Amino acid sequence: MAKISSAKKELDMSTLWGGTASSADTHPRAAWFRASKYAMFIHWGLYSEAGGMWNGTAWHGISEWMMRRARIPVREYETLAARFNPTDFNADDWARLAKAAGMRYLVLTSKHHEGFAMFKSKASPFNIVDATPFKRDPIAELSAACKKHGLGLGFYYSQFLDWHERDAAGNDWEFSKEQVPDKDFNRYLYGKAIPQITELLTNYGDIALIWFDTPGSITRQACEELQALIRRLQPKCLINSRIGNGLGDYSSLGDQEVPLTGPAGLWETCDTHNDTWAYSVNDHHWKSPTELLSRLVRVVSLGGTYLLNVGPTGKGIIPESSAEILRRAGAWLKRNGEAVYETTRSLIPAQAWGVTTAKPGKLYLHILNWPTRGTLLVPGIKGVIKKASILSTGELLAVSRKQGVIAITIPLLAPEKPHTVIVLDMPGGIKGAASAFSVYPDLMNHLPAPFAKLTDCTLAKKAWMEKFGDWHHTQVVHQIVTGSVIEWHFNSLGKGLFNLSLEYDCLPEGDASEFELTLGANRWRFPVFCTGNRHANRFRFRTECLGVVEMAKAGPAVLKLEAMSINDAAHPRPYRVE
Ligand code: FHN
Predict the structure, then answer these.
(1) What would you measure as the largest C-alpha separation in the chain, in angstroms?
(2) How remote is the CA of residue 213 from the centroid of ligand 1, in Å?
(3) Which of 21, 56, 359, 436 has the fewest CB neighbours in a 10 Å radius?
(4) Which residues of 270-290 are buried (b: 16+ CB within 10 A; e: fewer)?
(5) What is the pTM of this model?
(6) Dihedral class, residue 179 (left if φ above 0, else alpha if ψ from -120 to 50, else beta)
């Protein structure tokens, strides 16, 4: 059901995530990027040695930010380097894990905001070869391992924030403008960032992509210079949109954002296996294989790439519980990868049973929620079906079509875990209807905000953090006033009784605002209740059962919610809720 809400204070995500990229499919590596679909992100640096603990205090959330959050003086932080000795690091093991997981390339933090280079750098002695007892260059080792295993290699580089440098941005506890009156970002840009990016693009062979981050207030001119440098040194190297100022070759969405609708052009979602990017001794919140694969195929079905992060320890080990889950998801990809790699975006919207991907002449149905009545319904697809089968076993399935809806006879229990893919062979071509927004009688259906027709209210994207840096995203119906109308037009694929729930967030002043629900002959009013104060912009959605509605027949239907009286602080009634 829909999410209805708003945030009081809006965050400026463009300084964090840089907006969307300007160019796209003409890039020499665009086809490779579009085909790859799944990659490994690795956050590894001095912060991995600390694991989110500093002087006995646990910094919950993204542990690579501990230096900033604990305001650790640079000299003190540098002592981490003296004890950083990842003797268990084995580039080959990481590459083999990425392969077993079904990932096509790796993106490693070459320098994160802490300013420490994970490679030999002449531009700064604060690097793993010169400043640690380890003395090895893991990037050189990884580049050899990636080459050996046929994986692409990309580098994360924090171009704007560098807490180690007085001239760079971000360190406001030792290097604020007041503390350093002659602060000069260009001195950092030309003295460290550009020389290090040059080293990365010169010393390690063919680099698939450079992954910039948190562009902040970096100027367009600086971004253009960085982009020109990369084009000159490695014309085939892709650049993500977090370079800033609308530049870059592909868009990186917000952290951990699995969207409901996919942007145009090349794009990716970067996600992390738990709730931190770098290793944290206190975070064991691993997403299961089911959850990972569901997030992967949701992204892929919208045309995106899924970049999934792992956080190796200070010893250089990817935690085994994380690795084992990746391998299990990878085992599924071995059997079902045909429905993921090299596919194109879905031709119909996500359905209650799951999502679709496509290739010329083939349509893949990813059944994330297995229907229990022995029939899978697929609306909105035109074209002759030569054969329907279970992708991983080849088992043939009977198909019929009634009033434009495909009906596939399926086993009562899902034959594959975590989810089954059914492939439709349609050599004569496939056409899909973007309007095939449907409700199923035997499944849990969601009517998300972006699919609603809105009158006197708006659709808004919302993002907030739970633990520090642990981002959550949603889209909500926003700025609801008395008289606002929210309507979902859908096709009901059967008649029956539906248990209807609404997911909403309501500030204290909106408590007891009243809505009216209409669906066919069903019509009644209901109040919404305060879900609590929204501390630090965190939404607290509540899912509330509104009652049982009857859909008397299959076919087109409209679920309508009308705001009858909306309370807010200024107008006890009637009013405005968001
Ligand atoms: O600040 C960083 C964070 O530490 C992490 O690297 C993520 C990954 O996308 N990027 C920034 C926040 O968006």
Answers:
(1) 75
(2) 7
(3) 56
(4) bbbbbbbbbbbebbeebbebb
(5) 0.95
(6) alpha
Q: How far is the CA of 157 from the centre of ligand 1 (A)?
A: 11
Span from the CA of 113 to the centroid of ligand 1 (angstroms): 9
Where do we find the tokens 């840096």? 469
Write the pLDDT tens digit of every residue in 162-221.
999 999 999 999 999 999 999 999 999 999 999 999 999 999 999 999 999 999 999 999
pLDDT digit string (tens) for 349-404?
999 999 999 999 999 999 999 999 999 999 999 999 999 999 999 999 999 999 99
- The domains of the chain, with CATH numbers, are 32-338 (3.20.20.80), 354-433 (2.60.40.1180), 449-565 (2.60.120.260)
Tokens (6 digits) for 311: 């956080």
Which residues lie with the beta carbon below 6 Å from any ligand 1 atom? 16-17, 62, 64-65, 213-214, 255, 270, 277
Nearest-atom index, ligand 1, CA of 43: 6
Tell me the torsion sign for CA atoms 139, 144, 149, 151. positive
Residue type, 455: T
Assess contact for 166 and 175: CB atoms under 8 A: yes
Q: Where are the beta strands (DSSP E) in 530-575?
A: 542-551, 555-565
